[in-house]
Amino acid sequence: MSNTRYSELGGFLRSRRERIRPEEVGLAPGPRRRVPGLRRDEVAVLAGASVEYYTELERGAGSQPSDQMLAALARALRLSRDERDHLYRLANRSIPHQGGTAAHVHPAMLDLLSRIDGTPAMVSTDLHTVLIQNPLAVAMLGDLAGHHGRAASFIYRWFTDPASRRIYPQEDLAPQSRSFVADLRAAVGRRGPGDSEASALVDELSQQSPEFRELWADQDVGVRRDERKRILHPTVGMLDLTCLSLFSEDSRQRLLWFTPRAGTDTAEKLALLTVVGTQAMHTEPVR
Q: What does the pLDDT look like over 182-231, one tens digit per residue?
């Protein structure tokens, strides 16, 4: 990248940082702040970067940021889609397609996610690629956003990797498989026959999984809006939950949150999980 391009990138990051109030991203405003908006160290924490690295970016120095870092910065700074695209162009990177792990998350969904406390929640695409999770969702399900390529889609891992089912009760596996396939068929229908990403996912699953191939042939269609989820967490035990969904206008993304089912001890276990954190969650996560 040219020095001019680096300088433009740094100036753009700084301008976006200065317009955000700490409380908008779940941070305490504090009694006194020397700078408008967020501090550099706060953006670095939100984006999962070192303070030194982010500081260099704002100063127009350092190495070219990766696609993953740009996606993290776009989310940390609550960029609109147009702003996100501009950020990628300044960094001389291709604009990511809608379904991958670097997909743009609408700022309103990020805002809602940051305000959900005491409840596991996350944002995923209609092809079941998780884009971002709150800390309690990571503690409950593991880091679902760390996969790449085709494996970024949880529905792909569900039908190709037995480890993805490890913490579901055995009797729940068949209903979950059927629900996943019906939801995927609905997503494919919304996207239309010309959508290469959805078509490629269906083709690959059909080749690799006899179970998927059989369920796909049934032609069932059903959007997953609210479902019962039972999760065998390795530390706190069985969690009995209701999974609810809030959809974006184009239905390409959904905000999912998990609430304890009435008459169970799941609320107490989730409270314990906020203390336990992510340290005990070593198995392949599920949703």
A: 999 999 999 888 888 899 999 999 999 999 999 999 999 998 888 999 99
Selection from 246, 286, 287 nearest residue 106 by Cα: 246
pTM of the model: 0.71
- Please state, in angstroms and as integers, the Cα–Cα distance from residue 264 to each residue in 47, 260, 268, following that order: 36, 7, 9
Give the chain's length: 287
Tell me the per-residue pLDDT of 18-33, one tens digit each, with 9 for 90 and over. 988 887 776 766 666 6
Rounded Cα–Cα distance for residues 52 and 68 (Å) = 18
Tell me the β-bridge partners of 122.
133, 256
Phi, psi (5° rounding) for residue 260? -65, 140
The sign of the dihedral angle between the CA atoms of 207, 173, 240, 236 is negative
Tokens of 275: 């203390």
Half-sphere exposure of 121 (CA within 13 A, CB side): 18
Cα angle 280, 284, 287 (rounded to 5 degrees) comes to: 105
